[in-house]
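Retro notes, item 3 of 5
We never archived the inputs for the iron/sulfur cluster complex last cycle. Fixing that now. Sequence and ligand:
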Amino acid sequence: MSRSDVVIIGSGPGGAAAAFSLSRAGFNVTLLEAGPRYRPEQDYRLDRADWEVRRFPHKRSIRRRHTHAGLQALDTKWDTLRSWSRAQGRLIKGTHRAFSQYSHVMGVGGSTLHYAGESHRMHPRAMRLHTDFGVGADWPIRYEDLEQYYSEAERIIGVAGPEADAVRPRSGPFPMPAHAMSYGSQRLGDGCGQLGMSWLPNPVASASRPYDGRPPCNYCGQCARGCPRFDRGTPDLTFIPKALAAGHCRLQTECEVLRLEAGPNDRVSAAIFVDKQGAQHRVSADFFVLACGAVETPRLLLNSASRHAPDGLANESGLVGKNFMETLFFTSSALHPEAMGSYRGLPSDAICWDYNAPDAIEGVIGGARFSPATLEADLSGPLNYAQRIVGGWGEKHHEQMLGMFGHVLSVGAIGENLPNPRSYIDLDPEEKDTHGLAKARIHSHLPDMELKRLEFMAGRCRSILKASGAEEPVEEYGSYDMFNSTHVFGTCKMGASAGDSVVDAQCRSHRWRNLLITDASVFPSSGGGEAPSLTIYANALRACDRLAADLGQQRRVPA
Ligand SMILES: Cc1cc2nc3c(=O)[nH]c(=O)nc-3n(C[C@H](O)[C@H](O)[C@H](O)COP(=O)(O)OP(=O)(O)OC[C@H]3O[C@@H](n4cnc5c(N)ncnc54)[C@H](O)[C@@H]3O)c2cc1C
Ligand code: SF4
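Structure as it came back at the time:
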């Protein structure tokens, strides 16, 4: 058995920022990560002829760790929200919503390894949904409590962004100037202008100039396949090397935690994990920080049920796994008569925040934002065009391909997803993983409020395309008929009261005071389409700085 001051489980944004904060404060940290380390120059091979058929090179499959419950029946009144493409027709053939994917990565850096790097601060009013609008839950902290940590996280991952933000006050400018928008994004901006909508550079964690030893982005557009250029600020290149450099952090990869042990004294005593060779180990510590993501964190807590925690660890409120919030999204694509070169650029390089406030969309509570999405939709190579857009055979196919390739513009919307009792994570009563542990089972339901918001999002996406001159729709897909979640939240809610939340405002379990949760599980609300990682980093830095201060161990080493 080994021992540390702190054991951190999971090395995505929540675990990486915690490791950085606690190791610079002088704690001995063991960081356990179930997945391997990726080597960008070897693993992300965009220089090969078959680059387009090669997706992100998962080394460990997340799919074997979860199942899903049946999804809701579709209703013809929402037919305009169904997914389709020009070449394939309706994408979901059945009468029920289909499970497409819960698309996450197991590895050092977590799901950011294939993310677009969007780096957003929460809308301050989206953190007060219950008080101001009577829905969802409030955050027990304010935007102001996060601000200094937002700035620190932006500096560490290197965010390039525009100057002004009237809604989200900043104590300083972004570390790098914003990226120039691609030609296609500029055309979409023209469309927004005609509709009276704003269109600003999107803050992203990829370098717009040499930064902290990283080269600038080359606008290849392939972030989702993994960035081989080292310019994108993922935790494996930022927080984790800095944590290791502090000299107090030990990273153990391919070490999967099976359960946490808890004693009669309301303290977690050890983590049991299995290494790459299949050997089991037990590591004890004074503190445990859980950051496995909003599906795996509740799974681990529920699988850690014991005599002292019969309903699952830290589940005294019964809320572990509840309040599951997913990505409410809609993407619409259309052909522009002019060549747009839309196969290149930085993904999501622009954003419209006009409808992001909780009361910005008439008739619903909860906002949404809009961005260019041609590269997220993977319309960046000829194979996807052939399968999804062009269709046909022989000469005609070639002719059409020449006239269409690089002409598609896409707009994507992401909106608030309010918690509801039918969306949650529990343990699958039948399916077990290779260690004999119950898999996480995902339950997802979209009530009418969500579908109304989605209807608005779809309408705006189409209007922006049309106003930009992209008149011929070629593909649409969204949450209405497919579950496909990149941002997940809420399954270990943070709150002031032990009866109504899993962790307190400092991310510590109300009962198990040496257990912290620092990933997106603790988000009480999802925000109106903000990408979550920056808030995960900031919140983890805040909670761990507070822990270090409480313990009087602030022995900082330079970042
Ligand atoms: C395609 C895609 C694009 C995205 N784009 C953006 C974007 O542009 N901007 C943004 O902010 N967000 C984006 N996201 C979302 C973002 O990646 C996630 O919100 C974020 O990574 C979540 O961080 P986390 O720390 O909660 O968990 P994760 O990143 O999921 O990390 C959890 C880690 O814990 C490890 N783990 C799990 N169980 C165990 C265990 N039992 N033992 C040990 N280790 C374990 C996992 O292997 C994983 O590495 C995107 C996501 C996807 C899928
Ligand atoms: S667009 Fe930039 S950040 Fe994305 S993979 Fe290419 S070089 Fe990396």
